[in-house]
Amino acid sequence: MLESVQHTPFDISVLKRQTAMRLKSWTSNSPQARRLLINGRRLPAVVGQTFPGEPRALCVGPDEWLLVFDASLGLDQRRDIDHQAAEQQLAVVELSGGFAALKLQGSACRDVLAKGCGLDFHPHTFRTDTCARTLLAQVFVTLDCRGPQEFDVYMGRSFLWHLHSWLVDASLEYHTMTE
Amino acid sequence: MAPDQGKTSAAASLDVIAKLRSVPSSELGHTTLRPPFIPVTLGAMAGRDIGDFFAPHRRMPLHDWHASHGALLQDFGGWQRPVAYLNPHETREQAIRREALAVRMAAGLFDGSPLGKIEIHGPDALEFLDRFYINNLQTLQPGRVRYGLMLRETGVIFDDGTVTPLAPDRLLITTTSGNAGRVSAWLEEWHQCEWPELRVANFSVTEQWATLSLAGPKARTILSKLDTDIDLSAAAFPHMTLREGRLLGFPARIYRVSFTGELTYEINVPAGAAQSLWQALMEVGSPEGLQPLGLDALLLMRLEKGFLHVGSDTDGTTVPDDVGWGKAARNKTRDYVGKRSLYLPENLKPDRLQLVGLKLIDPKTGFMVGSHLRLANGNNPTDGWITSAGHAVLTSEPIALAMLRGGRQHIGAEVTVYDAGAQVARARVVNPPFFDPAGDRMNA
Description:
The complex is a heterodimer of chains A (179) and B (444).
Chain A: E1 11-15, E2 19-25, E3 37-38, E4 41-42, E5 50-51, E6 56-61, E7 64-69, H1 75-87, E8 90-94, E9 99-105, H2 109-114, E10 131-136, E11 139-147, E12 150-156, H3 160-170, E13 177-178
Parallel strand pairs in A: 1-13
Antiparallel strand pairs in A: 1-9, 2-7, 2-8, 3-4, 5-6, 6-7, 9-12, 10-11, 11-12
Chain B: H1 7-21, H2 42-46, H3 63-67, E1 71-76, E2 79-85, H4 92-105, E3 107-111, E4 116-121, H5 125-130, E5 146-151, E6 157-167, E7 170-175, H6 180-193, E8 201-204, E9 209-215, H7 219-223, E10 242-247, E11 250-255, E12 264-270, H8 274-285, E13 290-293, H9 295-305, H10 326-331, E14 353-360, E15 372-375, E16 384-391, E17 398-405, E18 414-419, E19 422-430
Parallel strand pairs in B: 3-13
Antiparallel strand pairs in B: 1-2, 3-9, 4-7, 4-8, 5-6, 6-7, 9-12, 10-11, 11-12, 14-17, 14-19, 15-18, 16-17, 18-19
C-alpha cells in the first residue's frame, strides 16, 4: 500500500465510515421540502448546489437531496430528520450500507475525471460546492466538488473496486498516489 | 460516418476514381468535407472501455469470502456471482449436485444480494404499484408478500418479483437481479411522465441491503440459534410474509419466500453486516449440514419447482398467459400497464408458445437448453424449444421446461427433441412442478 502524498498531481483514497441518506419529496416542486432543517440549516434549493458542513447537503435532482455525514448518525438525530421529513412530505431512506465514496485530490483530478465523463470540468463551470449526478466510466455516480483540486465521488458500494481500478489506470500518467 | 464522406476516406476514394477514369484527381472536385479530417484509430473511438474496463464489474458485499472459499465466479448482469463452490478435485457438475442435495436434505446458504430492492414511499404508493402489476395489490396488508408480474406496454413480461407493504405508505418490491436498474428507471419514468399527480417517491435500496437466503428443512433450526427478536415459528411467520426486527443486533427484514421449494428465510441486513451474519450462520449451521449454495444449484431447484425464471423461460414475446398467469391477468379489473395489449388478437391465439414441463421417455440421455421440439404430425419446422434443463436432485431424472406451441393442450403427448438438426430423443409433455407439487416443504 502506498502512503497518501500531498501536492501530487492526483491522489485517490477511499473514504470510510460515512453515513448517507437520500431525501425525496412526494410532490413535485414542493417548496415546503426546503424548510427541512438539518443541524439548523436548510436544504439547498437549486439542483447541483451543495451546502458544506456536517452533513454535506447536495441537491441532486428536482426535490431530491443527498445528505453525507462524516460520522455515524446518532439515533436522536435520525429521529429528528425522520420527524421533520414526515412533516414536510419528504421520504427518507438511509443508504449508508450500500454507499461508497472516493476522494480525488490534486491538480490533475479534473483531467482524470474528464477521461470517463462527458461533463465540463473547467473550474469556472464545475465550481466548488456544486455537484452533479452523472456517468463516470459507465458507473452512475454523484460528483461532489469540494475545492478547485478536490472531488468526492459517491457510488453504490458494488462499484467501488471497479471505479477505483479505473481511476488509478486513467491517472497513470500523473504518477498516482493511492491510500 | 459513411466511407465517402469523411475527409480521410474521401481523399483515398477520389484517388481510386481518378485512376479508374484516367484523369487527375484535382479535376474531380470533392464533396463538403466532414470529420474525421485526419486518420482516427479504432482505439481512440473505443476510449478506455477496453479489457477489464469494457464494462463495470460489480462486487457483492461478501465477494472476498466467496473468492476465498472456492467459489467459481461468473458475470451476471455485471455482478460477479458464485455459480458453485468447488471442493478440491471436484467438477462443477459434482459441486452443483452436492449443494442441491444439501438443500434438499439439510440447508444451504445463498448470497442473493444483487436481488433488486426498491422502496416506494408516499400516500399513493399502493395505488402507484397497482398500476404496474397484473396481480391485485389493493387487498395486500402490511407484512404480507405477493408475487407479481410486471409488463411492458406491449403486454410482454418485463420483470417479476414480490410486493410487500412495510406500512400503508411505504412498500418494498423485489425485482430480478439483472433488471433492478431498469425497473427503477421504469417506475421513475411513469411517475414523472404519466402520473406526476401521484404522491410517491421511489428509492433503489438494492445496495443498502445484503440478501442471504437460508433454505432447507433445517433452516428454522439453524436460524433459531442466532439472537433475534423475530418469532420464527410457522404459525407466527408463515410462507409469503415478511417480518422486521433485529438479528445479531442488526436491523433485519426477513422474508418467508422460496425459490428452491424448501423452507426459506430470505434475510436482508445492511450490507455492512453481511459478513458477520454469513459467518455466524455458517458457524451454527455447519453441524446441521449447512453448505454455501451457488447460483447453478439454486436454478436447478427452481427448475424442479417449475418456477419462472424471467429471461430464461421468457423472451421478448412472452405474455402472462404463455406462462400460466393468464387467469390472474384477466381477473384483475383495474387497469395496469400492458393490460390493453393482452387482448390483441396475436396475444389470444391458442397456438402461442406456452410453458410446459418435459420428461424423457428414454432417460438414458439428457435435455439441452435450446433444443427444438416437434409435435407428432406437426407441419412446422419447429414447435418450440427447451428453455431450462437439468437432472432432478433426488432421482437424477432428466427434466426440462420448454415453450411449446399450444403447449397446455398437449399435456401427456409425445414430442421429438432435436439438437443441431438431428433427432436426439423423445419426451413426454407434463405439467410442472417436478418436485413437491403441493408445496408442503416451502410452507413448513
